[in-house]
Amino acid sequence: MFKRKECSPLEENNEYSCLDDDLIIDIAKIFNEKMNANIDMNNTPKIIHEHLCEYIKKLTNENSESALLDMHKVINALPKNKLQRFKNSFRPEKPEEWHKNFNEWLSTTDIDDVLKQYAVADTHFYYYGARSPDL
Prior knowledge:
Blueprint: H1 21-35, H2 45-60, H3 72-77, H4 80-88, H5 97-100, H6 108-121
Helix pairs in contact: 1-2
């Protein structure tokens, strides 16, 4: 279920999830409260994550941790500061246009979304912003 390629560069050190342990526990509590998941909160975050992944797969038929991004019960229940951390734990989604035409160019916004994550993750990387050549 964990796919490193879906993780933000901010989360490169985590070995089993794109989410930090604090977020894993918060999301498991939300699953228990809102979806009666009965995840045992006395386990380690890694075990809790494994149970979360099993439950996500049952609900969505997806084998991806990023499926959480589409679960409104989770998103609506997270406080704003944790919601931002949650969203920043994953790479930006592929543009819809790419489902139709993989050769479609990225917009400057798409490029900004990705490279801003690298600028935060690496203090030696400075991103000036994407600029259109016709400006």
